[in-house]
Amino acid sequence: MTAEPVIRLRNVTKSYGSGTARTTVLRGVSLDVGAGELLALVGQSGSGKSTLLNIIGGLDTADAGDVNVLGADYRTVPEADLCRIRNTGIGFVFQAFNLLDHLTCLGNVILPSSFQRGGVAKAAQARGMESLRRVGLAELAQRRPSELSGGQKQRVAIARALFSQPKLLLCDEPTGNLDSETGREVIEFFRELNERDGMTLLIVTHERRVSSVARRVIAMKDGMIVEGDDSAVAGEGAA
User: Fold this and answer.
1) Any domain includes 76
2) How many domains does the chain contain in total?
3) Other CB atoms closer than 10 Å to residue 14's CB: what's the count?
């Protein structure tokens, strides 16, 4: 029996604006991502890849089509369950780090616990320290983001993404603000997460150094999948 994919998209469309200012960003995208995959989604700016990632992560909604992530149908799942999936089932890593300067590194890492009911502060801190250890920054737990290098900030962001032990990690241009050497270190860490822990990763990137470590590469252009193993799937239901 074939396992359900972690991500299953069918004929997903998305537009912004209205009237003559309406812009179609996604045009009938279909894609399956299996458990334990390391998938790179590539394409030029404006190709729709970040919008697609946001829809998969539940940060944005599709206009039409089926979006099923971690077994949840986004069309019918209650909002409370969708929030739970975003907070515990999916980890997010962004180009801009999105760290809060008034919190310590540890405070940033354990931030997801503030959205969980019945959380125990000591347990959250212990888990936060473990996340920082995994990215090699336990000794910087009490520093503020303003005291860190770009690479260290991204590692803290990754530690925060791993805090809830998600099954799926979504990364949007995670090396875009890093120098070449630091970027290589982050990419290698993603590969270790995939190979050692079996975590499913979907990485949006336009950098070859990132896509070169992926087990599968899917290319997007003008809101459509144009290359990759799912090119045939992407045509399902097309007019």
Assistant:
1) no
2) 1
3) 22
Query: Residue holding tokens 């999948």?
Result: 225
Q: Is 3 helix (H, G, I), strand (E, B) or coil?
A: coil
Phi-psi sector, 48: left (phi>0), alpha (psi -120 to 50), beta: left
Mean pLDDT of 193-201: 92
Nearest to 153 by CA among 171, 172, 175, 169: 175
**Cross-strand partners of 79:** none
Does the residue 74 lie in any domain?
Answer: no
List of residues 6+ apart from 81 with CB closer than 8 A = 72
* Residue found under tokens 């860490």: 189
Contact of 23 with 232, CB cutoff 8 Å: no
Whole-angstrom distance, CA of residue 115 vs CA of residue 85 = 12
Q: To 10 degrees, the CA torsion angle through 122, 126, 132, 137?
A: 90
pLDDT tens, position by position, 46-73: 899 999 999 999 999 999 999 999 999 9
At 100, is the pLDDT very low, low, confident or very high (cuts 50, 70, 90)?
Answer: very high
Residue 142 belongs to domain with CATH number = 3.40.50.300
Whether residue 230 lies inside any domain: the answer is: no
Evaluate whether residue 29 is within a structural domain.
Answer: no
Structure tokens at 12: 């997903």
In whole angstroms, give the CA distance from residue 59 to residue 78.
15
